[in-house]
Design brief:
The complex is a heterodimer of chains A (64) and B (130). Chain A is 88% helix and 0% strand. Chain A is built from two helices and no strands. In chain B, helix 3 packs antiparallel against helix 4. The chains are: A mainly alpha (64), B mainly alpha (130). At the A-B interface, helix 1 and helix 2 of A face helix 1, helix 2 and helix 3 of B.
């Protein structure tokens, strides 16, 4: 398990915030909302993989 | 035991990363905190399994029923998972939701521990003179 996923998520957050700001200032509000949503969904999928791994390891260790 | 240094480092990095990201996007900071907690849990989990293996050896040595031991392990696992999730919920501000998760865990542990209580009652009833 690596620490770099924390940096990845932080970088995705900062990047989507910047992209959203730029798109909003050029007047494309809908696309900026979509970009923000896409970043959130990417991060959520990464976190979901981690949580699934946690559940499988707990199942094997605790004999669920 | 340099694993504790790693755990401390991951915790500090997570704290700093949440602090940096929070003014930019507050929802991502919560996700970073969750992922940091998950990484620390993954680091511990291997050591936990060695502890449980040695405990299983001790149980086999004493000749106790191993069903009780697996039940105990399940109860400990439910406790850990529920505690982790409830603390995440109260971190994000939904402390009432965390309390409900804790309540659910308590009830599930109660249901799982019911066979042990019933077997103790059986033993007591056998000991009593009829």
């Amino acid at each position: 398990m690596d620490v770099e996923i924390i940096f990845k998520i932080a970088a995705i957050g900062i990047l989507t915030a910047i992209i959203g700001q730029i798109l909003k200032q050029t007047g494309k509000d809908e696309i900026s909302t979509l970009a923000t949503l896409a970043g959130l969904i990417i991060v959520l999928i990464m976190v979901l993989n981690l949580i699934g791994d946690l559940f499988t390891t707990f199942k094997t260790i605790f004999n669920f | 035991m340099d694993i504790i240094l790693k755990i401390i480092a991951v915790g500090l990095i997570t704290c700093v990363a949440t602090l940096i990201v929070k003014p930019i996007r507050s929802d991502f900071s919560i996700i970073i905190a969750i992922v940091g907690g998950l990484i620390i849990l993954f680091m511990i989990v291997n050591y936990l399994s060695t502890v449980f293996d040695s405990l299983k050896n001790i149980i086999n040595f004493t000749g106790l029923n191993s069903d009780l031991y697996t039940l105990l392990l399940k109860i400990i696992g439910v406790g850990y998972l529920v505690e982790f999730t409830a603390s995440i919920c109260s971190d994000t501000g939904n402390s009432s939701l965390g309390d409900k998760i804790l309540l659910g865990g308590k009830i599930i542990i109660m249901v799982m521990a019911m066979p042990i209580i019933l077997s103790i009652l059986d033993i007591i009833m056998e000991l009593l003179p009829s």
